[in-house]
Amino acid sequence: MSYEPQPPQAPQQYPPQQHPAQPNPLPPYPPAPQPPAPLPFPGGNSSPLPPDLRGLAPKPTYANEFINAEDDLDRAADEKVDDILHFLRYRSLKYVVRIGLLVLFIFAIINQKAWSAALTGFLSGNPLIQIISQLLFAIVFISVQFGAFFFLMGRPRVQWMMPGEGGVGFADYKGNPEVLEGARRVVTLLRGAKAFKQMGGEVIRGLLLEGPPGTGKSYLAQAISTEAKIPFCYCSAPSLIGVFMGMGALQTTMIYRKARKLSLEYGACIIFFDEIDAVAQARGGTQGGGMMGGGMMGGMMGGGGGGGVLNTLLTNMDPMPKDYTIWRSIARKLHILKGKAETPPVLTIGATNIATTLDPALLRPGRFDRNIHVDLPDADGRREIIEYYLAKVTHDPMPVERLVHETIGYTPVAIKYVINEAVVHAHFDDRTSINYWDFSRAREVHEMGLRQPIKSMSYRDKQLVAYHEAGHAYAQVKLLPRHRIGKVTIVRHGKFGGFSEARAAEEIHDYTREDLLAQIQVNLASGAAQEVLLGVRSLGMVSDLETATSIAGRMVMVEGMYDSLFSTGAMGAPDGDQRKQIERILQEQNKKVKFLITEHAEAVRAIAEELLVRDELIDMDVLHIISRYEALPQHYGAEGEVPMVYNERPGAFGNTAAFTPPTAADGD
């Protein structure tokens, strides 16, 4: 049967339908875009593709994998060739000299007798030569003694790492993506220094990293060196303050000299000064002689501080153009080489916790060109850090979201320490993986200290501590809507006889007047509970009074949150009226919290009596006790947001995002 094409049929016409008029008709839609024309056959055939071949993408073949593998081999071969040329250019002469000296030494040992006889005969026949040789021996002997003495007594803490020896890259730096992006730009400039100079720019000479301790400033500097594939020098700045005057400046000069030689070889070099504020504080007046009382002995014994180091640092960070190779220096003296001398690029990275104390000459453009503030990680950063370090240890299913909220205010180093301490706890418990409770115990050790129960404590003392902490716990639940109650214990941890922690439910960056007054009430609630329920007041309230007075003092004298707007942060000391205002705040808040404890005495007493029986209560226990006597505050939810119970069963942490757990601790 043959197929014959039929002529196209006209479309069927339908009568128009009548619709009621719309009050606000919509504008007409734009016409739909036309589909693209079909692609022609490869090979010049202009006919369209058959319908069964349209939209089909080329399938991957082994040829693509072969091409990628070939590119990798070419890249690896190029790197090997570059390494060989680099060795022949910069290292071959050194090895030739070393091999020559070794051969000469072996030859001297073999012909020792003949050489000794010839040398003795030469010296015995010429008295002047004998005198000169003895003088040379004395000079060398004294130089070696002093050199060894200065080397041992004035040697700074300096470590050099060649490219590839660090092993820390940007993939290992977690928790601060903005800081990491700034570091990537620095690496890009270091890698393309030549092209950047051809554009007319100058490679940055200094990078200052400031931020709280433990935020990873040293780690970041090492990662920059690894990613840029250039040498890295770590120097502890306090170690440059040597025993003898001028040793720190001399060591600084030697460090920069070696760095510029390595920069000629590798294209750039990084010098990292840790705790740079030890030698770079702002200059003003005379720099004391320390314990030596100044004078000649103070200066000779290094009492002059870091002034000499600072001056040397300033001149080396912004040096005059100079040739750092022997051949270029000779050619310039012979007037063969002309033009501006090229200074090898050396990036100086400084780390400090207090950048405000540094000398202004060090912070100007041309020295520390860039300033990166490395701050504490936020919630996303802590989640990234926790997941990174948890991946390195064996662990049961962990409530990561809860861990993120429990580590508000933690640095990356602190998170690493807590996870490692959790591994220690699990190891001594004869387990091969950690769980949430190991992390919780490790966090307690980090924040409050080692658990040290007092077994001989009398019931009376134990009762005082229990009512003290019960007052704190109840006030925290009722008065701190931005916090959640954590753990309450009367077991001694470090220097704390007990504690009640109220951990922030979210990251808090600012406080209102009401927030601060509530914190004062929480601190005074311990003594109020003892006074209302036991009729006594113990010495355990000393630290609470100090904290409450400090908060009230800042409100009155610094933050302008009471009757006066005068701030002692600008000038002056507190006057008598401000002291009366502080006292008035404390008395008012004490009356309020005593009224609160009196009105809810049954709930507070129940918490204290439960502490006397169990020694420790977790958040769920405290909320359950309060809910038996009254409704929980609105910020705890309709059901009180009773926290989830975490155990060691796999899959026990299914819906961790449903509860915003407590964070940040306060101890007594």
Your description of this structure?
The chain is α/β, with parallel strands linked by helices and 668 residues long. Helices cover 49% and strands 7% of the residues. It is built from 21 helices and nine strands. The protein has helices at 62-110, 112-124, 127-154, 177-191, 193-198, 217-228, 247-266, 295-300, 307-317, 326-333, 360-363, 379-390, 400-406, 412-428, 436-448, 459-479, 513-533, 542-557, 576-599, 601-614, 619-627; strands at residues 158-161, 206-210, 232-236, 269-274, 346-352, 370-373, 483-489, 499-504, 616-617. The strands form two sheets. The protein has a six-stranded mixed beta sheet. The N and C termini lie far apart (100 Å). The relative contact order is 0.07.
Write out key terms for the chains shown.
about 675 residues, alpha/beta, 6-stranded mixed beta sheet, 9 strands, disordered C terminus
Layout of SSEs?
Layout: H1 62-110, H2 112-124, H3 127-154, E1 158-161, H4 177-191, H5 193-198, E2 206-210, H6 217-228, E3 232-236, H7 247-266, E4 269-274, H8 295-300, H9 307-317, H10 326-333, E5 346-352, H11 360-363, E6 370-373, H12 379-390, H13 400-406, H14 412-428, H15 436-448, H16 459-479, E7 483-489, E8 499-504, H17 513-533, H18 542-557, H19 576-599, H20 601-614, E9 616-617, H21 619-627
Parallel strand pairs: 2-5, 2-6, 3-4, 4-5
Antiparallel strand pairs: 1-3, 7-8, 7-9
Helix pairs in contact: 4-6, 7-9, 12-13, 12-14, 14-15, 16-17, 16-20, 17-18, 17-19, 18-19
**Continuous helix count:** 21
Q: Based on CA inertia axes, which overall geometry fits?
A: elongated
Query: How are the strands of the biggest sheet laid out side by side?
Result: 1-3-4-5-2-6
Q: What is the makeup of the main sheet?
A: 6 strands, mixed
Name the poorly predicted regions. Answer: 41-59, 285-305, 638-668
Amino-to-carboxy terminus distance: 100 Å
